[in-house]
Amino acid sequence: MKKKDNLTISLRAKSASALEEFAQKVADSAARLPQIEEGTPEQIRAWRKERGNPFAPLPKVMRKTEDLFFPLSRGRVKVRHYIPENAKHDRAACCIYFHGGGFVLGDVDEYDTLTQHLAANSGCHVMSVDYELAPASKIKQIHQDGLEVYQWVREHGTELGIDPHRVALAGDSAGGNLTVAVTLACKKANIPQPRFQVLIYPSVNPAVEFQSVKEFAEGYFLTKAGMDWFRSHYLESPDQALEYELSFLRQDLAGLAPALVITAGFDPLRDEGQAYADKLKESGVRVEHVCYTDQIHAFLSFAGGIKAGDDALRRIGAALQQELA
C-alpha cells in the first residue's frame, strides 16, 4: 500500500483503517436518505433527478458536444459525443463509455461532467451511451445493444473523425459489467477487440458471492439491499444470476483487451473486481489494478468533493492517452 498526495492506494483490493473524511460524509448522507429498494424505478429516477448530485465533477470546456442516435437491430440509442479541445481533428482516438446505476438508474445527463473529464484528461473523443434501462430492457438485451454501439463506431467512426482502430471501452459498476460483456461477445463472434478497457468498480458476478458484499452490506453508499433491488429488475429471473454467460469469472478471458481495473476499499463490489483482475492476469491479459482503499462505491461520481475521484479520472485519462497513442 502506498500514499500519493494523501491518497491511499494499493495494487490489491483492501480497506484502509477508515474511510476518507469526505467519503464518510457521502456514505452517512446516503444512509439517511430514502433507500432505492423503497421505491419503483420510476420513483427513484425522478427523486434522483430532482435532488441532483452536488458533488459531481466540475464541468470541463469541450470543443463540441452533441447528441447522436445510433441504429440498433431493435431501434436506436442516444449517444452523447464529446470532443475535447485537445483532441486531434481527424482520426482521433475514442472511448465508448457505459454509465453505472445497476442497469436501472443513471443516464448521460447524470454522467455529463464525469465524461467531460475523461475526454479532457485523455484527449479522446468520448461516446457516452444512453442505453435503455431495466426493467424495460433486461441484462442480455443491454449487452447486445452495447455490442452494436461498439460495432457501429468501428464501422462508421471515420464519419465522426474517429480512428476505428483506436477505440477503447470503459464503464463503472453496471457499466463495467457491460464493458466486459462486449469484450467477451467480440471474442465469441471474432470481432476485433477494443484497444483497451477500463473497468471502474465493475460488477462481474450477479450471484453476489464475495465476502466484501457481506462486509459492506450497509452504510457504505451501495448496499446489499440495493444490489438485490437492481437484480430484481435487470434479471429475467433469480436463477439467471447463475447462468454461465453472465458468470464472467467462469469464462475463458484469454485474448481480451488490456485493462485498467479500479476498485474501492469499502465497496461491496471490491472483491469481485480484484478477482476479475486476477483472472485476466492468469489468462495472459495485461492488466493494471488500483484500489483506492479509503473510498466507497461510485467515488468518481463525487469527484467534485472527493479528491480520490479526481485522481482516478486523471489516472484513467492518462491510461487512455497512452494505450490509444
What is the fold's blueprint, element by element?
Elements: E1 2-4, E2 7-10, H1 21-32, H2 41-51, E3 62-72, E4 75-84, E5 92-98, H3 112-122, E6 125-130, H4 139-156, E7 162-172, H5 174-189, E8 196-200, H6 211-215, H7 224-234, E9 259-264, H8 270-282, E10 287-292, H9 307-323
Describe this structure in words.
This protein is of the alpha/beta class and 325 residues long. It has one domain (2-323): Alpha/Beta hydrolase fold, catalytic domain (Rossmann fold, 3-Layer(aba) Sandwich). Helix content is 35%, strand content 21%. It contains nine helices and ten strands. The protein has helices spanning 21-32, 41-51, 112-122, 139-156, 174-189, 211-215, 224-234, 270-282, 307-323; strands at 2-4, 7-10, 62-72, 75-84, 92-98, 125-130, 162-172, 196-200, 259-264, 287-292. Strands 1-2-10-9-8-7-5-6-4-3 form a ten-stranded mixed sheet, sandwiched between helices. Strand 5, helix 3 (112-122) and strand 6 (125-130) form a beta-alpha-beta unit. Helix 4 packs across helix 5. The longest helix has 18 residues, at 139-156. The chain starts with a strand and ends with a helix. The model has no long low-confidence stretch (mean pLDDT 96).
Q: Tell me the number of strands.
A: 10
Number of helices: 9
The percent range for helix content is 25-40%
Structural class: alpha/beta
- Report the major sheet: 10 strands, mixed
Task: Write down the Rg.
Answer: 18 Å
Order of helices and strands: EEHHEEEHEHEHEHHEHEH
Strand content: 15-25%
Cα-to-Cα separation, first versus last residue: 30 Å
**Topology-level CATH name:** Rossmann fold
Q: How many domains comprise the coordinates?
A: 1
Arrangement of strands in the largest sheet:
1-2-10-9-8-7-5-6-4-3
Q: What is the architecture at the second tier of CATH?
A: 3-Layer(aba) Sandwich
Average residue pLDDT? 96
The H-level CATH homologous superfamily, spelled out, is Alpha/Beta hydrolase fold, catalytic domain
- Overall form: globular
Low-confidence stretches: none
Top-tier CATH class? Alpha Beta
